Amino acid sequence: MKLLASLLPLTLLALAGCALDDDAADDDGDGDGDGEESSLEARVLTKGVNGDFCIASPYNCRFREGSSRVTTAGGDEAWGVEPGASVRDGNGAALVKQTGTRMTFNFGQTRLLAGKAHALALTTSNGSAGWYPIERIKGETSFRARNGNVDAADPGRGAMACYEIRDAHDPNLELKKVVRDSTATHERAGDYLPLVRANGVRSANLVFSVPGFGLGGATSDHFPAGTKFRRVAVPTSSGKPSITIPLWVKDGAGRYRKHAGDLRFFYGYIRSSSDGVKRFGWMAEDALAVSSGC
What we know:
mainly beta; 2 domains; 6-stranded antiparallel beta sheet; 4-stranded antiparallel beta sheet; 15 strands
């Protein structure tokens, strides 16, 4: 409740321009017509399925109360690591060798890949999120004690269209901000698009929560272009299965306050080719192309 009291005024103020899907006809070819009506009630943090602090859907939540990162005993978000191990994607494929000696990890995200326990790092030598062996984290015992396990759940409401991660992205969309009046380096649409990484391969984030709602940086996995994504029906505040947020560009004063389009997010899963595990989460529609064979 302490988090709710502190976040709610900021959330309502900063997200007054945030809109859920309108009632326009569906345009992605799966015929679901998933419009949603905007309402301030959708901005209130409530307990949901994926967490105790959710907005607009019981599946659009924070990892936990407080920081979305695994923090050290001293409150630092960066951990020292032994470089030289492979950074891996959600399929377990090696991307690059890690050269940096400090990494930031998202809370509760662990996978068994290549026979070892891995944690999801946001700062890797691939210029993307990726999985890194926990045994290579300095203070491993402390890290394990301070990390948890938080996985997005299956709504159990049935499958929708099949997609795959695009092998392209719109560079004009990439730099638009997902947070009104943002001054951060990131908080941009490109964080949710399939960008070319240091290894020369396009890849995109699967996220635990939709950006723009103040729920914290919530990447939960990372997959290459061509990976299949099965969209599933998910409840929202109006019962429609997607969430749309406004995008922002600079106004005459040089601040990101000019509305310039929107970004829609679908909930669904990717089945990891390494172990067959379904990884649920949100993906931007603009990161996906209609496909088959999910």
